[in-house]
Design brief:
The structure is a homodimer. By secondary structure, chain A is an alpha/beta fold. The first copy, chain A, has eight helices and six strands; from the N terminus they run αααββαβαβαβαβα. Chain A has helices at about 5-15, 25-35, 40-55, 70-75, 90-100, 125-135, 150-160, 185-195, and strands spanning about 55, 65, 80-85, 105, 140, 165-170. The N and C termini of chain A lie far apart (about 65 Å). At the A-B interface, α1, α2, α3, β2 and α5 of A face α1, α2, α3, β2 and α5 of B.
Chain lengths: ~200, ~200
Amino acid sequence: MQYYPPSLVRLIKGLAKLPGIGEKTATRLALHILRSSHEDAKRLSESILEVKGKVRFCSKCFGLADTDPCRLCVNPNRDTTIICVIEQPSDLVALEKSGAFKGLYHVLHGALSPMNGIGPNDLKIKELMARVSNGKIEELVIATNTNVEGEATASYLAQILKAHPVRVTRIASGVPMGSDLKYLDEVTINRAMERRQDL
Amino acid sequence: MQYYPPSLVRLIKGLAKLPGIGEKTATRLALHILRSSHEDAKRLSESILEVKGKVRFCSKCFGLADTDPCRLCVNPNRDTTIICVIEQPSDLVALEKSGAFKGLYHVLHGALSPMNGIGPNDLKIKELMARVSNGKIEELVIATNTNVEGEATASYLAQILKAHPVRVTRIASGVPMGSDLKYLDEVTINRAMERRQDL
């Protein structure tokens, strides 16, 4: 790498800090940027600064936003009586893509994980409780992941919300659509059997 | 993607233009940049502009450089009587890393490829001839790749350089060091057998 001009080496080092990008890939990307048009490079450079300058967390739902409250929170077409609780902003995008949910969101920014020292105070749980206490919320759909941390977080939320007159639900778990039972893990099959429904 | 804030979407689109980076990876990188420190993001943004502004091709060897002539061309410790002819600036880096060559370089910026419409005029061959004609060059080592295009380029160069009183050599081809014959392709084994040497 030290055989490239110093400014190119600086770019390679910067790119190599990104996740999943090693020195070889960073070199390939840097050489591509070098060959790309001045306009493309300028646009990429500016959009990095723009993202850092503009994108914040919405003060209501803690999703990513460049306005506050975010466009979802102020959208008059959304059902404001139901909140879907998720772990990460990327989960919000997955749910929106599916079109399955028309209410508001609340991003916890993580899940309970005592092993990693993540307790309730490290998540946006206080803020969720405040939204619930403000009334008007009729249902909370807990859509944390279905791994150990996500399940623990769901149980914890269900427990502390017992005192509130709000309906707390959990997204269904079971066999994913379009899948082949023989390739499925045992935990999922057990869960699907346990929660079988009348046809 | 349209569920992310517009400025984040712009960054994702910019990153997705890089080679080998699809929309999913671009999203992951953009979210990482969003989470990284302001300083890191600023440095990355600036180094993109810096590379585009500073890095040029050396007017002598056509390698990448932010000075002209490049540091290699003006280095008094290099042997100025021998030039190694290569296809790309990245080949220069590979050769420098190996420490095998102490002369000057000449980057052709490609190889002859009639199928892709790349002829002698699309490469830095005229410039190479000018360097050879200026005298003082005693040997040209053709180190183009050993694929069809690279071999064709080497033959072409050997042919047009016949008229010049310069020694033209080609890097050796054969079995790579540390390799296992049973996994090697037939063309390489044939070549290695053809060019066997006395021990």
